[in-house]
């Protein structure tokens, strides 16, 4: 039995609240159960120096956790003068995931930065950030299309979403919360497109190595979960 009493293939309640920031070109408050992440997409009429005069745009991301997003207060990374390794790894993952479904040439020489701020953490913050970040990015591109800056459907090639899976008490389960994530024998994150393409898989055995059969079970759960997330994304932005 899972701590949350969910079935092995049952996700937490997922919701997307769009337009939560009056200033950002696109924004979404995404909730995966008790994990809440605010995603904002900001447009800039510039690109990194190495892309200047290339005709190509860029999509990037930043990620952070608020001090009381966890049980004990976390020190702000700004107070230490640098970002931690975990933060850098996650925001690079978010950026790669979002770029996988964007035609950067069709975007033109513009940059969209998706900021993902964790308001409350209960496992799966990076997967929630990717899934909600897509909504914020989509709304930013719609904002641009309304001003005749781009043709949205030429820029956005597909949906992208992410979900965690793991081996908990010897059983493959979908969408780990913190109680499961902190004690799981195997923890994995899957990023996939709406068409089923694999963007990235991160999998780690915390104790005993996991088998190819167990990995196949996790992959099956991930495909089911991401298919559901993409359905919810489509309902949110329709």
TrEMBL record:
Signal peptide positions (record): none
KW Oxidoreductase (keyword) present: no
Domain Exoribonuclease phosphorolytic: from-to ranges: 10-140, 160-225
Keyword Transferase (UniProt): yes
EC number: 2.7.7.56
One Pfam family per UniProt: RNase_PH
Keywords per UniProt: Nucleotidyltransferase, RNA-binding, rRNA processing, Transferase, tRNA processing, tRNA-binding
GO molecular-function term, one example from the UniProt record: tRNA nucleotidyltransferase activity
Record field: catalytic activity: tRNA(n+1) + phosphate = tRNA(n) + a ribonucleoside 5'-diphosphate
Listed InterPro entries: ExoRNase_PH_dom1, ExoRNase_PH_dom2, ExoRNase_PH_dom2_sf, PNPase/RNase_PH_dom_sf, Ribosomal_Su5_D2-typ_SF, RNase_PH, RNase_PH_bac-type, RNase_PH_CS
HAMAP family, A to Z: RNase_PH
Record's protein name: Ribonuclease PH
Organism, as annotated: Nitratireductor indicus C115
Species lineage: Bacteria, Pseudomonadati, Pseudomonadota, Alphaproteobacteria, Hyphomicrobiales
Gene: rph
């Amino acid at each position: 039995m899972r701590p949350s009493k969910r079935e092995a293939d049952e996700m937490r309640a997922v919701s997307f609240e769009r337009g939560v920031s009056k200033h950002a070109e696109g924004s979404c408050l995404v909730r995966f159960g008790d994990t809440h992440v605010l995603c904002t997409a900001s447009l800039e009429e510039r690109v990194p120096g190495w892309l200047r005069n290339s005709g190509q745009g860029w999509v990037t991301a930043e990620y952070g956790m608020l001090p009381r997003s966890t049980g004990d207060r976390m020190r702000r990374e700004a107070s230490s003068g640098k970002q931690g390794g975990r933060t850098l790894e996650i925001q690079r993952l978010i950026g790669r995931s979002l770029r996988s479904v964007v035609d950067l040439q069709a975007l033109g020489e513009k940059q969209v930065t998706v900021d993902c701020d964790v308001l409350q953490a209960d496992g799966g913050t990076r997967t929630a950030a990717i899934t909600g970040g897509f909504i914020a990015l989509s709304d930013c591109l719609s904002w641009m299309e309304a001003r005749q800056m781009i043709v949205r459907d030429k820029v956005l090639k597909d949906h992208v979403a992410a979900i965690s899976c793991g081996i908990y008490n010897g059983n493959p389960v979908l969408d780990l919360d913190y109680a499961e994530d902190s004690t799981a024998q195997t923890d994995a994150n899957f990023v996939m497109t709406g068409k089923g393409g694999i963007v990235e898989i991160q999998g780690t055995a915390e104790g005993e190595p996991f088998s190819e059969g167990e990995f196949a079970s996790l992959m099956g759960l991930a495909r089911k979960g991401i298919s559901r997330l993409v359905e919810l994304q489509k309902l949110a932005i329709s």
